[in-house]
Write a structure and sequence with these properties.
By secondary structure, the chain is of the alpha+beta class. The chain has helices spanning about 10-30, 40-45, 70-85, 85-115, 115-130, 130-135, 140-165, 165-185, 185-200, 210-215, 215-235, 250-270, 275-295, 300-320, 325-330, 340-345, 350-365, 375-420, 440-445, 445-450, 540-545; strands at about 430-435, 465, 475, 490, 490-495, 495, 500-505, 505-510, 510-515, 525-530, 535.
Amino acid sequence: MKAGTRMPGFGPGVVRAIALIGAVFLALRGAFAGSFIFDDYALLALPRFLDNPLLPFWHQHVEGGLHYRPLGVLLWWLSERLFGADACPHYLLNAALLSLVVLSLWRLVARLIGDRGTAFAIAFVFAIHPIAIGTTAWLSNRYELLASVLGLLALARAWEYRQTRRTGALLATLLLFALGLCAKENTAALISAAFVFWWWPSAQRPAWLDRRQLACLWLAAVFVAWLLVRHWVLPPTGTEQLFAYKSAWVLFSEGMAAWFLKLPSYLFLWPRLGGVTATLFVLGALGLLLLAWNRSRGAWDRDRVALIVAGLALIAVAALVQWPRTGLVLMNLHFGADTLEDVLAARHYFMSALGMALAMAAVFAGSGPATALHQRWLAGLGTALLVIPLFSVSQHLARSYRGTTLEQARFASAAVAAIGKLDLAVEDCQIYLVDTDSKLFGFYVDTTIKALAPDLSKLGRCFIQTEFSPWYHLVERSEVLRAQKPPFSPVRAGRDTVAPILIGRGALVFLNMAPEAKPPLGPGSYFLAWRDGAFVDVSEEVRTGRRSVRFFCFRAPSECP
């Protein structure tokens, strides 16, 4: 295996970089006219309550007690200040981040195997794969993209340290990984790959214990330091909501089983391939498998073995660090059944796909200019045959996902328009959006409206909900105690209740809609009903008893009143 140090140049290198960026934007272009959905609104609303964007570094900022992602929140704060609630620039930003991931992967693989052509092919396939496109299409996955960019840059410096033992490469590796962990905890998977880079002996330094291996202790120190900061910032409670549905062991076992069982369908796309695209995919895959078999029979030096072990470690650890969410999400998702499900689940395989790219780079290592002509033709033809179905499925996902977001956005835009006509200069402001029959809209309704409304000076005091329990409310700090009044009731977490999270000028408040409660009839309560594509004020009908309103707890039974 060649441990090349030359990076792609300014001639063919620039052309290839443009091709990779173009592939990303072409595959994603169908989503650019879409809107926000689910957590996107919460991530847009939170910065509007934050005057200091650095506050999340030392203060809890994500619902529950599981995640510490201050750098990701900082990026959302900046993008909200720059783009507001205009969705298109946010999609372009995600596409730019994916482009940086792809370029970083290309440069890393070129450095690892010394073959720019193979590195380009691997990066190109990754760029248009539905796992990458689906992850990027959901704007909330900006955390994942940012962490991947930083982690891949760190891996490049880690490989440099493996080859040179330069102190600068060591320090750069540690700094980039520390920043990556502050973007998203999945960076731990990329740290495991760097650990393999440094621990595995090389041809130049065959010993199992020298300065390079001892540097693994610095990787462990960075990770432990992040854990300590996370423990200091996040409360000791908060994960009870996560385990309200299933025990920790059940979540782990079912999550891991679901992740591995569904991996083939997400990786090979079979449920979404038709006759022609399926045939092209099979032919391309067979050609590359034949080439991989031929290349794998070559010499496996220590660098090549280290690379494939690092790729496998990245795949496995990326799956492990997501186990709470995979146990809740993947069990109920089936690739090909629904576009929204495909996009939502793609993030669970994103970093593992990076590990697969590294493993494939090890398999194809050494296929440089001296490679036989027929092998180069086979590699090019196999890649081209794969690109067609990959690009087709990714574009379909982007277009279909756009339609789903726009369907949900019609409720949001209509609600903002109707609420804009209300007199919100009242005490105990509560707004009820009823008759949408969309539990998903209701689950995120409060942050949805507060992300889109042009003026929060009065609306920030209001509790906005449908008939169903929302995920949480984001209100001004002074309004927190109102969550204890009917029809609201606290969300149970074991023997306790979920405490509000105070951050900036706002607070994340977790509450239920009590099923037996009567609707509030005070002057600060408004009821807007969904009729013929718009929300109509029916507050007077509710106050006079001509219309009834029932509430529902849309949570696990253990969390409901």
